[in-house]
Amino acid sequence: MKPCVRLIVPFVVLGLSQTVWAQTDPFNELAEADSGNAQVTLTVAGVPATLQQSPISVAENDGGGDSSDNQQLTNASFGLPGLSVLTLSGGENQTADTSTSNTASATAASSLTNASVLGGLVQIQGLQVTASCNDSATGDACQGSTSVGSLVIAGQTIPLGSVAPNTSIPVVGNVPVTVAGVPIQLPVNLTLTLNEQSTGGNGVSDKAINVTGFHLVGTANAGLVSLAVDIALAAPVAETAEDETGTECLEGGPEYLANPDDMGSFYQCVDLALHLHTCPPGLLFNVEQIVCDWPQDVPAR
Question: What are the CB-based long-range contacts (under 8 Å, 24+) for 50-58?
Answer without folding.
Answer: 50/80, 51/78, 51/79, 51/80, 51/85, 53/78, 53/85, 53/86, 55/235, 56/88, 56/91, 57/91, 57/93, 58/32, 58/33, 58/34, 58/93
